[in-house]
């Protein structure tokens, strides 16, 4: 396995600290996180055709098939067993780099940018950003890859989409990993998340970015400083218009999520239709995937749970222990019943607390 060691970034102590850090220094720090992934994947895309049947909210005279490019990273041998990684509401494909790098010796790993996120194009209207659209993008992604089926790893929104896709398209999902998501999520939790992501944030200084995304990463478990820096870089982009970094997504995609977050998620009917092996990854302090929901899920034959201590919504799937258990399960081995994942030793955080490291 090609696990990546990510200690405190070498040389970080020589840079300006706190609010004095410049974007040039930030870019230099980021470069240190990119080296393990250089040359390990291909950035690809395909033309997604948004069908008229999903445009019921459009004025009738405007309805027509529209096209945008959807991006993905591809790792490993294209002829190896296919694993598709699907992120959450505000994630990008590069969030999966650590997991994909390790899986690439045995799998063809495709990490997908949802419409309106990362390197993918933006849909024509806010109302186009729906679960039905996400399912359709998966259909077209598999067709583009010329594959009848795949194993899927889905975090949060990615898992909700994967359940809907698997229920609607029997036989196209071989194995399913649900990362801190299940058939039920409380409406109150969805509303809180919607309020957090629907804002348009402008990060004028690196310290603004560290404070905001460091706080939001507190639920991801023992994520290292380098992993956080890597993820925040690809989750944001520079904006000349705003004179700072902004999130790398269409704001309307997050507004559409907020508008839909008035009710609890209820996918129990789709859940009952699933018949593939399923690994449920559960952050033990998650308020999105409740313990009672997990307990009901594992009653289904072929379903086991991996509980992750000191972690909420969602486990980052970037440390050696989590990667090992996911990899082993995808290979058809490992635990036959639910278990608790080991935690790596905690590592110090300096950038994401805006505290200068000791000399």
UniProtKB/TrEMBL annotation:
The keyword S-adenosyl-L-methionine does not apply. InterPro entries: AB_hydrolase_1, AB_hydrolase_fold, Carboxylesterase_BioH. Residues 81-284 form the AB hydrolase-1 domain. Gene3D superfamilies: alpha/beta hydrolase. The keyword Protein biosynthesis does not apply. Keywords: Hydrolase. It comes from the Bacteria. GO terms for molecular function: hydrolase activity. PANTHER family: HYDROLASE ALPHA/BETA FOLD FAMILY (PTHR43194), PEROXISOMAL MEMBRANE PROTEIN LPX1 (PTHR43194:SF2). This is Alpha/beta hydrolase. The lineage of its organism: Bacteria, Pseudomonadati, Pseudomonadota, Alphaproteobacteria, Rhodospirillales.
């Amino acid at each position: 396995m090609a696990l990546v060691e990510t200690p405190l970034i070498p040389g970080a102590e020589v840079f300006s600290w706190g609010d004095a850090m410049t974007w040039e220094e930030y870019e230099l720090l980021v470069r240190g996180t990119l080296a393990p992934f250089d040359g390990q994947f291909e950035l690809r895309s395909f033309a997604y055709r948004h069908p008229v049947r999903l445009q019921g909210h459009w004025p009738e005279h405007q309805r027509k098939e529209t096209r945008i490019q959807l991006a993905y990273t591809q790792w490993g041998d294209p002829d190896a067993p296919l694993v598709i990684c699907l992120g959450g509401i505000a994630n990008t494909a590069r969030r999966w780099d650590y997991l994909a790098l390790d899986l690439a010796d045995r799998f063809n790993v495709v990490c997908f940018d949802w419409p309106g996120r990362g390197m993918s194009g933006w849909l024509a209207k806010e109302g186009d950003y729906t679960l039905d659209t996400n399912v359709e993008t998966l259909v077209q992604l598999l067709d583009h890859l010329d594959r009848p089926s795949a194993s899927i790893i889905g975090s949060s929104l990615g898992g909700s989409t994967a359940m809907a896709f698997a229920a609607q398209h029997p036989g196209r999902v071989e194995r399913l990993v649900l990362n801190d998501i299940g058939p039920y999520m409380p409406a109150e939790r969805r509303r809180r998340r919607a309020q957090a992501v629907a804002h348009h944030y402008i990060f004028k200084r690196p310290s603004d970015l560290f404070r905001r995304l460091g706080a939001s990463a507190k639920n991801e478990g023992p994520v290292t400083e380098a992993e956080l820096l890597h993820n925040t870089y690809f989750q944001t982009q520079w904006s000349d218009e705003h004179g700072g970094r902004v999130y790398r997504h269409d704001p309307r995609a997050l507004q559409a999520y907020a508008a839909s977050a008035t009710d609890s998620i209820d996918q129990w009917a789709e859940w009952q239709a699933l018949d593939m092996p399923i690994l449920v990854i559960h952050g033990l302090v998650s308020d999105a995937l409740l313990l009672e929901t997990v307990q009901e899920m594992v009653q289904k034959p072929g379903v086991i749970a991996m509980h992750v201590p000191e972690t909420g919504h969602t486990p980052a799937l970037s440390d050696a222990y989590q990667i090992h258990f996911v990899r082993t399960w995808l290979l058809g081995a490992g635990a036959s019943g639910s278990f608790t994942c080991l935690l790596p030793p905690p590592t110090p955080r300096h950038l994401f607390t805006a505290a200068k490291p000791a000399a």
